[in-house]
Amino acid sequence: MDDKSTVNRLPIDTSVAHPARRYDYWLGGKDNFAADRESGDAVLKVFPGARVWARENRSFLRRVVTFLAREAGIRQFLDIGTGIPTANNTHEVAQSLAPESRVVYVDNDPIVLVHARALLTSTPQGRTAYVDADFRDPERILASADTRSVLDFSQPTALMLLAVLHFFPDSDGPQGTVARLVRELTPGSYLAMSHGTGDFMSDHQQGAMTGLGHVRSRDELARFFEKTDLVDPGIVSIESWRPDSPEQTRPTPADINCYGAVGKIR
To answer: How far is residue 70's CA from residue 92's CA, in Å, rounded to a whole number?
Structure first.
């Protein structure tokens, strides 16, 4: 079955913007619709750096997975809020360094499901799987036969939550959900996260966030890492987390409005 016929069979409401498709639009992808582009352009009027943020977040993912696979020796990854596949997906980065790496992707967007085959292209030594589930349902994620067949939670695992939690207000209990996921992981595992922040925004920009996301301060983000030891340099603007480009060529925190961090689970 080709992608177009699959789309036609899935419950996709193309009249409503979706974060994954809006992100794809900012990255220059083609898997988005008019509503996503209109929403993306509206965000750009308030946050001109949205496209820069999207690119920097992908770069942050690459650097984080490189650290985890090369320096921390991690060979298992649980990537929740995968988004539409693009360059340098988690398994591509990890398996380029350690071909035996095993990755489970989780998302609940039908468009991502359509493209899951791109996420399931693994090295012969490794494994990948895709789980159709919502971040707010950790029990389903953890109990999935695909999750259990690919990941062994008695071994160190990296929990990846990049550009995900700012879509969930406190009323959804994201801190409790992260804590539940972390409890499943053995000590020596890692939690990696990027998250939109209002710390560098004007009052006008923060007001414009209504309906777009739930920015959190550095202190609020730190609460998600309470059971971890933060990896140097701690919680910083994502372009400054173990950068591989000179400072003068990087955007500023105010351009991106996004923190990132990695913590080793105790």
So the answer is: 13
Rounded CA-CA distance 81/95 in Å is 20
What residue segments make up the domains of the chain, in order of their start? Answer: 12-265
Contact (Cβ atoms closer than 8 angstroms) between residue 199 and residue 236? no
Distances (CA, A) of 153 to 13, 35, 78: 36, 40, 10
List the structure tokens of 114.
């359509």
Question: What sections of 69-121 are H helices per DSSP?
Answer: 90-97, 110-114, 116-119
The domain covering 12-265 belongs, at the CATH homologous superfamily level, to Vaccinia Virus protein VP39 (3.40.50.150)
Q: Using alpha carbons, list the distances in angstroms from residue 110 to 11, 80, 90, 120.
A: 7, 15, 20, 16
Residue 115 makes CB contacts below 8 A (sequence gap 6+) with 3, 31, 84, 85
Whole-model pTM: value is: 0.91
Which helix or strand (DSSP H or E) is residue 264 part of? strand 258-265
Tens-level pLDDT at each residue, the chain (266 residues): 344 444 445 567 788 888 888 988 999 988 889 999 999 998 888 888 889 999 999 999 999 999 999 999 999 999 999 988 887 899 999 999 999 999 999 999 888 888 888 888 999 999 999 999 999 999 999 999 999 999 999 999 999 999 999 999 999 999 999 999 999 999 999 999 999 999 998 887 887 777 677 899 999 999 999 999 999 999 999 999 999 988 889 999 999 999 999 999 99
Closest C-alpha among 265, 241, 242, 261 to residue 190: 265
